[in-house]
Amino acid sequence: MFEAQFQSFEDPESGGALSGRLLACRAELSRRGLTGFVVPRADQQQNEYVAPSEERLAWLTGFTGSAGLAVVLTEIAALFVDGRYTLQAGQQVDQQAWQIAPLIEPPPESWLAQHLKPGDRLGFDPWLHTSAAADRLAAACTKAGAELVPVDSNPIDAIWPERPQPPLGPVAVHDLCFAGEAEQDKLARIRAELVKLKADALVLSDSHAVAWTFNIRGADVPHTPLPLSYALVPQHGRPTVFIDDRKLSNSARDHLERSAAVAAPETLAEALRALAQSGAAVALDAATAADALTRLIAAAGGRPLRGADPTTLLKAIKNNTEIAGSRAAHRRDAVALARFLAFIDREAASGQLTEIDAVEALESFRRDTGALKDISFPTISGTGPNGAIVHYRVTRKSNRRIARGDLLLIDSGAQYQDGTTDVTRTIAIGEPTEEMRDRFTRVLRGHIAIARAVFPDGATGAQLDPLARQFLWQAGLDFDHGTGHGVGSYLSVHEGPARISKLGTTPLQRGMILSNEPGYYKTGAYGIRIENLELVVAAKVDGAEKPMNGFETLTLAPIDRRLIDVSALSEPELNWLNDYHATVCAEVRPHLDAATQAWLDAATAPLEH
């Protein structure tokens, strides 16, 4: 009935079938005079989604998660993953060949300090690590009496016989009707930031920054419209965009050349060297700039200034055009969501639907809008115990039938030219248990606490994060992920620098869009998450002595009334929920057929104490 065009359900190669690759890696390292090598899950720009040609970690180990790192030594090898992926790593990796260890606490450097021997030579590709990461590796080597060795070419590439070619996705102009600000105006704002930094030039090492600054989008990585590229923005003079010209149509080239020179990516090093030879201070993004860039600038006599790329914050604060686009994208997405939720309610109780069926149906309803460019990340569709795996990705092997008594957790998003969406709903299939309703209501109350929050200028996500957890904490419960992340404007669904988490130190500013997604996960049983996107807006507070902010909820989708213990809601919480559902109904109902209208009327009907 439905099919997915933007998501695969195939199981990757894994386990013992890949053991020959580890042997080949060790042989190549020996040939190069190395006793070890570090393999991050990264491309040159630290992107969340990477092109197939950059999936070195997955090719070597079989692990396909979005965060991880491997270390191959002569006699031992380890794969480091964070808590989201411990279960997945155990299923995908040959544990006879690989140890599985924590990525965060303790970090891989602790493991290295224990396992490296005096005189060892640990190789790393300086194009795939930031300078901060390289510094940590160097310190671990020093502690063990070993040497950290930058390689000129990646040894994994030498043994990967069918490595895909780098992507050549076509570049599209992101029209002013979506971008809301011309490139020249953005460059003027960036240069004003360079004055503050006392920098002669800025390297845009993050393709998101290049895309935003020059109002272009691309198709080089899955789910994010990125044109893999670099740019060099001098304090004075014309910037240069470094991009493979095979990606550029005549119109895209003409657009770029109105505000910048266009050059091949391989000429970036030469341009930086020439700049550095004059003693220039060159700003680099500490989060995404490859260590190779820092080394190159310093070796040529320049001053690398490692810090936050100023475009990251500029990009995060959406202008009026982008805000209007996001509202339009969410209204459009809401119609697809209503059709999907009605379909699940109608069909799932029969026991005939699977997790994959749910993914395919939702994508099909989004494609019916006529505006879908891609999904914004692989849809998480987990029923029963699979819902308790926070970053679960359904495959043909793991696919589970949706049954009565289950909770179905579906976390998904869309890429439209006018905005990026991200929404999670938890759906009761049949009658939920009292425990499910209790946990869901605690999560909902935390979600409402964020949505209703009022906070002063300068408040950070770390200050708001406990609001989402308070009702879970009261029952001795919690969730192990952040409460919210920033979201781009037809760019990455996970955008910095702001977030709602204990690590969220960036002040929340009007125009930022963040997710609000508390959850609860009972291992082996079920998962719950409720996620809307929120826009930071001005809040009116009578008698306020400083500017105050709050949130406008952008997402428009019913929250499952069957899972709510209404008696546990306060009057303000119940009023928020009823007002939210009234807004959903008013915005979405006119765009639905009669049968789905009837479903929506019931799904958004007011609740009473």
UniProtKB/TrEMBL annotation:
One Gene Ontology CC term in the entry: cytoplasm
Ranges of residues in domain Peptidase M24 C-terminal: 548-607
UniProt cross-references to InterPro entries, sorted A to Z: Creatin/AminoP/Spt16_N, Creatinase/aminopeptidase-like, Creatinase_N, Pept_M24, Pept_M24B, Peptidase_M24_C, X-Pro_aminopeptidase_P
Protein keywords: Aminopeptidase, Hydrolase, Metal-binding, Protease
GO molecular function, one term: metal ion binding
Gene3D superfamilies: Creatinase/methionine aminopeptidase superfamily, Creatinase/prolidase N-terminal domain
Keyword Metal-binding carried by entry: yes
Domain of life: Bacteria
Domain Peptidase M24: 327-536
Stored Pfam families: Creatinase_N, Creatinase_N_2, Peptidase_M24, Peptidase_M24_C
Domain Creatinase N-terminal: 21-153
Protein's UniProt keywords contain Phosphoprotein: no
Family: Belongs to the peptidase M24B family.
Protein name, entry field: Xaa-Pro aminopeptidase
Organism, scientific name: Rhodopseudomonas faecalis
Species lineage: Bacteria, Pseudomonadati, Pseudomonadota, Alphaproteobacteria, Hyphomicrobiales
